[in-house]
Amino acid sequence: MAAALKSFCKYLGATLFCCTLIAQAQPLPSSITLAKTVPIADVHLHNYELSAGPFKELMDRNNVQWAGAVGYLNDNMRTVLKDRYIPAIGQRELVDILRQGRSFTDPDQWIFKSLFKDAENGFKDGSIKGFGELHTDNYYSSPRTEFRRRFRLDSPMMRQAYELANRYGAFIQVHAGMNETFKEDLLRLSDEFPRVTTILSHCLPQARPDDLRQFFQQRKNIMCELSAGGPVHASTSTALGDGKIYTPNGLKPSWKNLIEEFPTQVMLGSDTCCGLEKRYDEIIQEQREQVLAYLTPTTLEQVAYKNAVQLFKLTMPSRN
Is the CATH number 3.20.20.140 carried by domain 27-312? Predict the structure, then answer.
């Protein structure tokens, strides 16, 4: 009896293990090789600590053809990377507002007046492509308490940013929380300003795939990028488990389903914030192996670079 029970338990354990493997998404044979070599557009590259030269080396080594779309706006990056750089403005100014204890929502302050003047000049001559990363609500997602803040997306200051971006067909990359107020604000602004593409940083730290599905179904000018969704970033915080979007075991099925359903509304990003520049190789490698390899070839290319090329009007750079 004991032997039979032991044998049954082994069988049950093996069955459950196999069912778990079936439930997990699996890398696609048709995509594994392509995922290793496809060019990448990194639409969440901060340049706080490394200078442009070392970043160019990291990008070249990892076949990352374009990068940026978040702050700080950096003339050195523009000089070194040329048209590989996706210049964005606004993050430094929000940090200045935070440090000075000023209002995030009043556009009549000199910091915001200067920001919007510089942004409009940059939009006109093509030297700036959008606003980012604008943290409207990082109260539960910032690891640094001194940088936390929370204000409405549909506030006077942000509405002015949307009005300006809409005039020039620019983008706004937003780091936000997920609640009903934000959902209503985002859908309203995306409707009122149809020429603005809102990029949701990290696919919203607190959002589930179904939350994003509701946005994507209703608005084609809402996109998200996958930075901070995997093991490297998870290793810096116990709150992230082994990865929100993908783990060492690969892309989570619910996220794979979302991406395959809306392949033109998702992009890649690294988020080299807070000392992670030294782990850039790991971040890109895990996105190739644990995200791109799990997508169909057509979707893989869209997410890796084609969506960014279309949105930011990029061209394949010539290597010098």
Answer: yes
